[in-house]
Amino acid sequence: MSETTSEEQVPEPLVEARRLLNEGMLEQCLACLKPYWLENESDTRAIGMFGELMKEAGRSEVARKLIRLTELLDAKSASTSADADLTATGESPAPDTVQPQSDGLTLASSPEDDIPYALFEAGFGLIDLREHELAVMLLERCLKLMPNEPTVNYEIAFSLMSLSRFDEAIAHFKHAMLDSEDFDTILNLSVCYTLTRRIPEAKEMIAKLAGLAHDEDEQRELNHRKIVLKRLELLGNKQTFTPRDWQFVLYGGIVLRTGDAHTHQKEDCSSIASTLAILKGVLEGLRIEYEAVEYYNPNARPLARILGELMEIPCDSYKGPHRPDRALLIIAWATDIIGPHEAFIEHVHTRSIFSYGLTWNEPLPVAPEITGLLADDAIMPWEEERSESIDEIVTQILNRARDLDCDPDILREVQEAVAYYDSKRELLVLNNWTTFPDRPEYTAEVQRPMATK
């Protein structure tokens, strides 16, 4: 059924999405179905199929909410059509009756009363899946039926913030705040003001947070926001912020390469060698020494081997949280931290984290102190089919990195990075384990290269 006419020909995107779903190609189905639904928000065929897709993906609770929403919207459409037919013939519509629903709730024959709740539940479920565009679409429909509802405004604002639509998020958070000035709402407002570089408003929210922070987690978050504001003020006169600026402001992290970021980036021997040569140069320029290099997972082992040889220090696998000598822990991609990360959440003087790559939009338990580049995905040469052995690839990269010691372009990049970070050392997480006992959580507040003025 659809809120359009039932005789209408099924649009091609829905036909294709159905084929992909039937063939079990779930990611391809999502890529096909989502844009259509965003363009046709009232087409319940898309909503229902999205519910089926979620069910096939093992997201049964979200699937149930979407399918129920479809049923309610179709029932409303059918009821409206029936009433219109009766009116046209001069007959009176039948009085409302109460009918049982599948989840045990009851609803008058006119389903309008349950639709706002169903829209909210489905939208909230999509937030859990990080499908924020779809969530905003449903929650905005909900808000039209429940004007000024604080909870709906808060959830819309959260999704808008996740989509980097900060000014829109601020407006909705303000509506939510009219009901109650709770910690989470004020916290998210402070984040939005920070990301739009509205320093006075951010200060005001942080001052409010000070009176609302009660438990240890809230106090930790308050302290983090204060540090973020301090870093922001340090760069306050800079007209345009780069990803390097944002990484410093939000997480106190170092980014080695500041060139154009790519969603997908195939790394080769030259690009890896240049990144590791810059890392070595920046550590030397900042006068930070390590006694060992270690790797966190097998995919990071080649990187650790190269860096160990380059820095002339031992290399081995991750040995747990109580290593006696000072080590640089190598992670190929920061999404690896989603694994067993608990051992190194605590920031101690014996270990720093270098991640070759950091995704733009994947929330992580911790932010690495040093990142090679920002990209959603990248392929390392040892991940593909290859004619050379890993040992041969490691040798190629190592020799290339050694040759770059005196390369003028590499020296320039190293000097730029050292000049940028040396004056900010007290606000960097790297080597400041007493000031920052807890590494900040990487929440991907800055998505995509965003030059905010």
Would you kindly provide a brief summary of this structure?
The protein has helices at residues 12-22, 26-39, 44-56, 60-89, 115-128, 132-145, 150-162, 166-179, 183-195, 199-210, 216-234, 243-251, 269-285, 301-311, 390-403, 408-422, and strands at residues 98-100, 106-108, 254-255, 264-266, 292-295, 315-317, 327-333, 351-358, 370-374, 377-379. By secondary structure, the chain is an alpha/beta fold.
Major sheet: size, sense and barrel closure? 6 strands, parallel
Strand runs, count: 10
Spatial ordering of strands, largest sheet: 3-9-8-7-5-6
- Outline type: globular
Structural class: alpha/beta
Uncertain residue segments: 94-109, 449-453
- SSE order in H/E notation? HHHHEEHHHHHHHHEEHEHEEEEEHH
| C-alpha end-to-end distance | 47 Å
Task: Count helical runs.
Answer: 16
Which whole number gives the mean pLDDT? 87
Radius of gyration: 27 Å
Topology:
Elements: H1 12-22, H2 26-39, H3 44-56, H4 60-89, E1 98-100, E2 106-108, H5 115-128, H6 132-145, H7 150-162, H8 166-179, H9 183-195, H10 199-210, H11 216-234, H12 243-251, E3 254-255, E4 264-266, H13 269-285, E5 292-295, H14 301-311, E6 315-317, E7 327-333, E8 351-358, E9 370-374, E10 377-379, H15 390-403, H16 408-422
Parallel strand pairs: 3-9, 4-10, 5-6, 5-7, 7-8, 8-9
Antiparallel strand pairs: 1-2
Helix pairs in contact: 1-2, 1-3, 2-3, 3-4, 4-5, 5-6, 6-7, 7-8, 8-9, 9-10, 9-11, 10-11, 11-12, 13-14, 13-15, 13-16, 14-15
